[in-house]
Each structure stands twice: as structure tokens, then as C-alpha cells.
Write a structure and sequence with these properties.
Length: 356
């Protein structure tokens, strides 16, 4: 019985002490809510590409005999790039030349016969039917010569098409076929970068572009090699694809480079970074965050009564060390950053010297 009485007295004393401590003024650290400009630096890895590219191909199919260029080679307009087997085309050209020669001989004979029949008809030594037949044979010979000459021109073009020439000056990005390979008509053989200059191509998450769409001016992009971040050039956004890759949720963005990066060429990896503005708002450290049944909240110090109240807030986004408040706070309000775990609505507090 004595032990029970002692325990009751001890518990009563502890409750009184706890109540006394709860009523004591608590020292907390607080920070004023200040509106600032939100910004963040984005880092992405992309690829060096050419602003204008062309896939060179033969207009006819066949077996590739030679490819005269390799990756990275610079070519002038009209330079020979590759050849395909031309045995059939050479035979067709010889046949077309023979057909033209035969057509010319037939035309000359028909012309002489038509002139002779016309002369005989004037003298009454032949019939009108013979003269008309000679005239028809001449017309047919003229048509056959025209057809033979057209076939000859077609055969010459087919022979010329066995040699692939550079349509403009540029740089070979990569070979898409090899000698000995059988290709079809219009199958790409080489990929060429036309003209001068470079651009960087990035696959950017759609959410990043959605936030950036609020900015009128595209950000300046800093570009550097993966292994040499100290070497950098600037670029500007040249093109944003209107399509979203459904598999990755990214959008292709092309950045025109103001200068080339030493040691990098087409197809090499490049790192790009840009500062994105997210507008204005109130940024606070993670330690201010508390909660109510409705959602996130923070403790506000009423400087008139030096008591605290719990204020619901709306958070726009998070970072590794800060939260960004969208609504719920006014400029200059004191928000508790340290000591929030010991607070309850109306509790008296005093600000630490650091807060002051």
C-alpha cells in the first residue's frame, strides 16, 4: 500500500512538472518569409550533330564495288563517293548505240526512197500508192530514230548513275554500307553533313519544357565535352520538336553552337547546362515543414503576442534542401525553422539571437 501511494505521488509530481515546462516560454529559431526569384541549373547529355544532313543513295540497285570516302572525310561538290557494278549498264549503252546506228541507216534509206518515189510520181512513172507508202516508211523511220536516241540517252544516264557524286560540299558523318554489299534503289549509302557548323541535340524531359514555356526568352545553353567541363562554348535553342517520345517522355531539342568544341565531331557526346527560371516565390528550409489533417503546414510566430499558430501552405516543388511555398504565407512573416516539434497552437515563444 505504501508503494502504491508513493507511485501516485511521483506521477502527480511529474505531471505537474510537465505542465509547468509546457507553460514555459520556448526559445525557437525563425526566419522571415521573403519572396525570391526561383532558378535551377539543368544538366543533360546530348550528341553533336550537323544542322543540315543528307543521305546519299544510288537511284538504282546493284552491288557496291568501291566506296571512296570514310567517316570524317571532307568532300567537295561533285566529288566521287562510291560506285556500283556497271556491267549491265555498259552493255545496255552498247546496245543503244547500235540501235541508233541502225535507226539512222534506216532513216537515210527511207529518205532516199521517199525522194525517188516523189520524183517518179511527178513523171508519172509510179503510182500514188507507192509514193504514199514511201512517205509512211520515212515517218516510221524518223520515229524509230527518235526512240533509239531516247533509249541511248536513258542508257547514258543509267551508266552515269552507277557513280555516286557529292551533291554539295560537306563532311561524311558515317558509312551506311560497305563494298560488296547488294543494295536496292534509293538505299542510303553515306550520311553527309552539308556546309559548316555544328549543333547539339538533346532529349529533354517534357516537364522541363512545360515549366520553361512560361519564359519568353529561351535560356543560354553552356556546352562542354563530357571529360573536359572547363572547355565550354555557348549555344541557343534553335528548334524544339512538337512531338513527345511516348516511350521516354522526352522532346528533342536542337541547340545551335556559336563555335565548335575542340576534339569533338559529329556523333560525339556533349554536356549541356542551362539556368531555368521558375518565377518568384518563398523558399524555406525543410525543417519548417509540419502538417495538419488537410496537408502541409508551417508554424508562424505572431510577433505581437509572441505566440505561434499552425498555418496550412501549398508547396509548389521540392529540392534536396528547400521547399518552395506557392500560397499560405505573407511577405515578412516569421516562420519557425528549429523547435517546431515542441510547439502547439498558442504556445509562447521567444526568438533566438540567431533569428534576431
Amino acid at each position: 500500500m505504501a508503494n502504491r501511494a508513493f507511485l501516485k505521488v511521483a506521477m502527480a509530481l511529474m505531471l505537474c512538472a510537465s505542465a509547468a515546462l509546457a507553460d514555459q516560454t520556448l526559445t525557437v529559431t525563425a526566419t522571415p518569409a521573403t519572396t525570391t526569384e526561383f532558378s535551377r541549373r539543368l544538366w543533360l547529355t546530348g550528341e553533336i550533330a550537323a544542322p543540315d544532313t543528307l543521305r546519299a543513295a544510288f537511284p538504282t540497285g546493284g552491288r557496291i564495288t568501291t566506296i571512296e570516302v570514310d567517316d570524317g572525310d571532307h568532300v567537295a561538290a561533285g566529288a566521287e563517293l562510291a560506285r556500283i557494278d556497271r556491267v549491265q549498264q555498259e552493255q545496255a549503252l552498247r546496245g543503244a548505240n547500235a540501235s541508233v546506228a541502225a535507226a539512222v541507216a534506216e532513216l537515210n534509206a527511207a529518205r532516199d526512197n521517199e525522194a525517188r518515189q516523189a520524183h517518179l510520181f511527178e513523171r508519172g512513172a509510179t503510182t500514188r500508192a507507192n509514193r504514199d507508202a514511201a512517205t509512211d516508211r520515212l515517218a516510221a523511220a524518223v520515229a524509230r530514230q527518235a526512240q533509239a536516241e531516247a533509249e541511248l540517252a536513258q542508257a547514258r544516264t543509267a551508266l552515269e548513275d552507277t557513280v555516286l557524286l557529292a551533291p554539295a560540299s560537306g563532311t561524311v558523318i558515317r558509312r551506311l554500307a560497305e563494298p560488296g554489299q547488294i543494295i536496292g534503289a534509293a538505299q542510303p549509302i553515306l550520311e553527309l553533313a552539308l556546309g559548316e557548323g555544328y549543333e547539339a541535340v538533346f532529349n529533354v524531359p517534357e516537364a522541363v519544357l512545360t515549366n520553361a514555356a512560361q519564359n519568353a526568352t529561351p535560356p543560354v545553353v553552356q556546352l562542354s565535352p563530357i571529360d573536359r567541363p572547363d572547355v565550354a562554348v555557348t549555344g541557343r535553342v534553335r528548334e524544339i520538336s512538337p512531338l513527345v517520345n511516348v516511350a521516354t517522355g522526352t522532346v528533342q531539342v536542337k541547340v545551335a553552337m556559336n563555335a565548335s568544341l575542340p576534339g569533338l565531331s559529329y556523333g560525339d557526346a556533349v554536356r549541356g547546362s542551362a539556368v531555368q527560371s521558375d518565377g518568384k516565390g518563398i523558399a524555406l528550409p525543410w525543417s519548417v515543414l509540419s502538417a495538419t489533417a488537410e496537408g502541409p503546414a508551417v508554424w508562424i510566430v505572431d510577433e505581437a503576442s509572441m505566440s505561434v499558430l499552425l498555418r496550412p501552405v501549398t508547396i509548389s516543388r521540392y529540392t534536396s534542401d528547400r521547399i518552395f511555398i506557392e500560397t499560405g504565407l505573407e511577405e515578412g512573416e516569421m516562420v519557425v525553422t528549429l523547435g517546431a516539434q515542441l510547439l502547439y497552437p498558442g504556445r509562447k515563444v521567444r526568438l533566438s539571437e540567431a533569428a534576431k
